[in-house]
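User: Can you recover a sequence for this backbone? Please restate the input before giving your answer.

Assistant: Of course. Working from this structure:
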């Protein structure tokens, strides 16, 4: 036969359930705190990623700007080189320049062009060394297949 529950038995049983509910509420509170902390950490990491992306965008813009400037300077050099050749030819035809003087002028022009390439960051020193300047002006050697021939 089932023993009849007394008021005290029922109160004890209710207190056990009350303790279980309080324990679960405490665990839920701890989990909420951990979740909020994790969310804050993730948000901080996301903010760092956004800052880095901004830096990457700035660097890409700077590279594009410098590349465009280099292209413009290259076009100017080619144009001026053509103009110089045209003038040299005209002056040679008119007898105002000798062939030796034209060769000397071409040497000077080549040296200026080489100097310009060094200033804009493109180098070629023989077959084994080639590279360029990085954004901070440091020489950055480029390894290519021609280095291993």
């Amino acid at each position: 036969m089932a023993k009849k529950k007394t008021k005290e038995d029922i109160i004890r049983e209710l207190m056990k359930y009350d303790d279980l509910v309080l324990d679960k509420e405490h665990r839920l509170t701890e989990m909420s705190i951990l979740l909020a902390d994790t969310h804050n950490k993730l948000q901080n990491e996301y903010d760092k990623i956004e800052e880095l992306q901004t830096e990457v965008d700035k660097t890409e813009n700077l590279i594009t700007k410098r590349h465009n400037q280099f292209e413009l300077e290259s076009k100017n050099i080619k144009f001026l080189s053509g103009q110089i050749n045209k003038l040299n030819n005209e002056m040679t035809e008119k007898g105002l320049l000798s062939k030796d003087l034209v060769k000397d002028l071409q040497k000077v022009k080549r040296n200026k062009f080489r100097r310009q390439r060094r200033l804009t960051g493109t180098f070629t020193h023989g077959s084994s060394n080639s590279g360029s300047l990085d954004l901070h002006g440091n020489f950055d050697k480029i390894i290519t297949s021609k280095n291993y021939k």
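That completes the design. The CA atoms of residues 50 and 138 lie 28 Å apart.
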